[in-house]
Design brief:
The chain is an alpha+beta fold. The protein has helices at 22-32, 57-70, 78-83, 88-97, and strands spanning 2-12, 17-20, 37-43, 48-53, 100-106, 109-110, 117-122, 128-138.
């Protein structure tokens, strides 16, 4: 059993920046040299999120629209009072989606469904450079 860690960095648009990182995570699993195990994918920052989805144009619009209904832009957030900024909704949305996922891999391949990709999301109100840490545990 061993551990291998690598970081992915990318630029993402404000609020609707959904980036497909599946190939990057698969490359890291391959680079680890492990045949079987798990890959934990964690985004650094409290306004980013990681999940899986079918990475297609419709869902790239549907997901931000759904998050707008769950944590609307046009309401008052206590976070704004604390920090005098505008991204309370970003923190709420990121907390709901989550900062990490764990994906098993078998024979060196991520066990994702045919239409399932790993995505990182920038939910902040400004575009930004994002960092994702991938920790591979395997044998």
């Amino acid at each position: 059993m061993g551990v291998y860690t690598e970081t992915i960095e990318f630029f993402a648009e404000a609020e609707k920046g959904i980036v497909d990182i599946t190939k990057d995570v698969q490359r890291i699993v391959e680079k680890s040299g492990f045949r079987n195990g798990i890959a934990t994918v964690f985004i650094v920052g409290s306004t980013g999120a990681v999940t899986t989805m079918e990475y297609e144009p419709g869902l790239k619009k549907d997901i931000p629209n759904a998050l707008e209904r769950i944590a609307p832009s046009n309401i008052d957030y206590e976070h704004h009072k604390t920090w005098h900024d505008d991204n309370g909704k970003s923190h709420v949305r990121a907390s709901i989606v989550g900062a990490s996922i764990t994906v098993p891999f078998i024979n060196g391949r991520l066990t994702l469904g045919t239409w399932q990709q790993i995505v990182a999301m920038n939910l902040d109100t400004r575009s930004r450079q994002r960092k994702v840490v991938v920790v591979v545990i395997g044998e």
